[in-house]
Amino acid sequence: MTYKSNRLRICRRAVRAISVLLACVILSSVLSACWSSRELDELAIVMGVGLDAAAVPDHVVVTAQIAKVSEMESPSAENGVSPSGNAYNNVSYTGESVFGSVREMTRMVSRRLYFPHNQIIVLGWDLCKKGVTQDLDLFMREYEARIEMKILVARETAREILAEKTDIENLPALHILDMLDTHHATSEIVAVTFREFQISMLSKTTSPVAPIIEMYIDPNSGQAKARMSGTAVFKDGKLVGELNHEQTRGLLWVKGKVKSGVLHVEAPGGKASLEISHSRSKVTPILGPDGKFSIKIQILENGMIGSQESPEDLSTLENVKMLEAAAQEAIRAEISSAIEQAKLLRGDVFGFGDAISRKYPDEWEKIKGEWDSVFRELETEVEVKTRLRSTGAITKAITPGGAA
Amino acid sequence: MKLEKGRISAIELTLGVCCFMQGTMLRSVFIISISSKDSWIIAFTGLLFFLPCLVIYATLVKWFPGRSLFEINEEVFGPVAGKICSLAYVFFFLSLAALNTMDAGNFVLDFLIPETPAPAILIFFMCFCIYTVRKGIEGIMRMGTLFPFIAFVSVLFNFMLVLGDVQWNFLLPMFRLPAMKYVQATHVVGTIPYGECLAFLAVAPSMSKGAKIGKHMFFGLLVSAIFMALVIVRDIVTLGPLVDFMSLPSFEAVRTVNYAGDSATGKAEQLQAPGLRCGGPCRVLLNAGFSFLYGKCVLGV
């Protein structure tokens, strides 16, 4: 019995040891690497995508900017060009659909296109005029695509924007992204993510907007460069017009997105530039006794004197009040200009319709069918409060012989 | 096979219910597709809808102390009808286990590792769950005490990260849908995530002496309802009307988080592995859910 039980125990231990060993072998064979692994040198990392209308009807030109990762960090890389060539490669294909074109590109690129790092999507002017709804479907549907990428409209074609010769960044896509990221300095560019654009697209009243980017000839280098130039306004998925820089900031005032910038105002004895340091806004729909809607826009702005061109002491209480009043007027003018332009384009870029539908859902049901005409007649009251909090590091302008 | 060897404390039951319910949050699209931006309230109306069932089953457990759901069936309905009734429960748990497995598989294959063959994922998923069940129901409940905290912290963390991009007015106007939509959504939530919790009544024989199963289950469900509402609110205020179009709103909401540091570009941009923030906890919770349902099926058979 003892011998038998010892043998049984030994057998059990052996089975257990073999089972553990087998489990280790199986696990090490399947856990050592991921089946879906993608090595960096096997991927074509897409950093920017451009969509243009093709010469052939119902076709679209898709341009993918692919980063050459090994050349991006090259210390001698200049103008996006390293000693061994460009830090990127633009690939274009004309197809019936964006999805089909992206797949067809694999015949032109030795690697699989990889979209999770994509930073921007640039839409050509002509394509926007025709309508972009269908062409953007892939970027919402595809698991790899990121909905936080920035969206822009090219004044001409997206293809030429992505072929820009850059000075600071290695890739045009990153250069454009940087320009959008620094938009707070002037608050004259509206930076819009793909998610925000699609949310506006879904709205029954709000018109989607996107920054416009255009090429210009740099007088210093003689090269074609990209720069931001106003805001594109869409309606029913099609480009209907644009807002200039002033109107763009008017839009941003209403949306409470002005975080910095400069206001040029008349000051005693000359001009002054006021720096915007903070702002916030409140949009309140009001239903009047006559059943008509109006919108009350309240803006609170804090700022400081950025520079002055007059010898006057602007830090006196009287002059500060005068500058605050001038700033209020400047802000009001920008907002009014934006509203006028939006009415002209019949595009509710501010989201007034959505604001009314949230506050007065029952009344909204009665007017939602004729929102375009209601919007054109919509009265707006703009109330601006400004506070000049500082004169900067000096209290008065330094003028020749100005010492006490 | 006797699976229920250990004793389960009241807190383990509460946290186990939380763990189980959190695993179902990947399927929030069931609710959102019906009740859209008002879906957060459905988390609570669904709980109210389920409460009478909970009271009935808790009373049964009280009347038949120390008996499992299947034993109660046999005692109440007799050996034949009881077995048929138990078979219906087994079918319910088995179909839910299959649904959980399919969800876990689809999620991993669609979003995380798309080129991996489905069997490679599902077989390992099930092997892990079977191993857990073999170790006893106590093991599953122990597992359930840790993961709810991880999931809760994960959701709070994600919510904080998306706060800069949220618009609270996406929740407005509230309660403007036809009443039938709320009824339908409440029924769906009451049946699928809350109804699945009936599986926990089978742990009654393993409960510590004196533990009130109904009370602790209710507390677990209440915490889960708050968690569910929090997740749905996060999804709605982040995605706005897009939430109605997403197949996995929670996953997409988390993908909007901007992280610094990207090895490919050297630029601040989005974290390229949202699975780390969302996928991991979800898979673990689904594992727990499947293990429990599978355990109940084995026990029933």
Please characterize this protein's 3D structure.
The complex is a heterodimer of chains A (404) and B (301). Chain A is an alpha/beta fold and 404 residues long. Chain A has helices at 2-31, 69-72, 98-105, 125-130, 137-141, 158-161, 172-181, 194-202, 245-255, 317-345, 352-359, 361-367, 371-377; strands spanning 43-53, 60-67, 81-82, 85-86, 88-95, 112-114, 120-123, 150-154, 209-217, 224-235, 238-243, 261-267, 270-287, 293-308, 379-390. In chain A, the strands form three sheets. In chain A, strands 1, 2, 5, 6, 7, 8, 9, 10 and 11 form a nine-stranded mixed sheet that branches. The longest helix of chain A has 30 residues, at 2-31. Chain A starts with a helix and ends in a 14-residue tail after the last strand. With 301 residues, chain B is mainly α. Chain B has helices at residues 10-22, 29-35, 39-63, 69-77, 79-112, 118-134, 137-162, 179-191, 193-196, 213-239, 249-255, 274-300, and strands at 258-259, 269-270. In chain B, helix 5 packs across helix 6 (118-134). The relative contact order of chain B is 0.24.
Query: If you average the pLDDT of chain B, what whole number results?
Result: 80
Q: Roughly what fraction of the amino acids of chain A lie in strands?
A: 25-35%
- Main β-sheet of chain B, in a few words? 2 strands, antiparallel
**What's the Cα radius of gyration of chain A?**
29 Å
User: Ranges of chain A with pLDDT <50 over ≥5 residues?
Assistant: none
- The whole-angstrom Rg of chain B is 20 Å
Number of helices of chain A: 13
Order of helices and strands of chain A: HEEHEEEHEEHHEHHHEEEHEEEHHHHE
Say how many strands of chain A there are. Answer: 15
Number of strands of chain B: 2
- Biggest sheet record of chain A: 9 strands, mixed
If helices are DSSP runs of H or I spanning 4 or more residues, what is the number of helices of chain B? Answer: 12
> Roughly what percent helix of chain B?
55-70%
In angstroms, what separates the terminal alpha carbons of chain B?
A: 10 Å
- Unreliable runs of chain B: 1-5, 260-280
